[in-house]
Write a structure and sequence with these properties.
By secondary structure, this protein is mostly helical. The chain has one domain. The chain is elongated. It is about 80% helix and about 0% strand. Its main location: membrane. It is found in: Cell membrane. Keywords: Cell membrane, Membrane, Transmembrane, Transmembrane helix.
Length: about 120
């Protein structure tokens, strides 16, 4: 049996919440080990990964179950394009602030790796 569009949307939002949790845990680790600037940088890096995924989910799953397959494909493509653009914009904005580059990238990469756990969230 196929999952309902609502179940798919909820699973996507759970994944994004998990990514934010990964970002927070990474930031906590850096707060303990390297200080406030490193912790803030790691959390910002995590948000740079999670926020575009949230925007993608909003666009990609908005028409799911409501429109044609072509509308769903178009929504996915727009969501993915916006996700890439938003990631770049967020990196540019954050790079204008005082940051620690290593923790920033660590937070981004660890949060991005959380996407590999999608099988856990999309298991119905």
């Amino acid at each position: 049996m196929q999952p309902s569009p609502r179940q798919v949307r909820i699973s996507a939002y759970k994944l994004i919440a998990f990514q934010v949790a990964v970002a927070a845990v990474t930031a906590l680790g850096f707060a303990i080990g390297a200080g406030e600037l490193a912790a803030k940088s790691a959390f910002k890096g995590g948000l740079i990964a999670a926020v575009p995924n949230f925007v993608f989910a909003m666009f990609a799953f908005w028409t799911l179950g409501r429109g044609s397959a072509e509308q769903a494909r178009t929504a996915m493509m727009r969501g993915h394009s916006l996700k890439i653009i938003l990631t770049i914009v967020l990196f540019v904005v954050v790079m204008q602030q005082p940051i620690a580059a290593g923790p920033l990238m660590a937070g981004f990469i660890l949060t991005l790796f959380a996407q590999w756990s999608t099988a856990i969230f999309f298991k119905h």
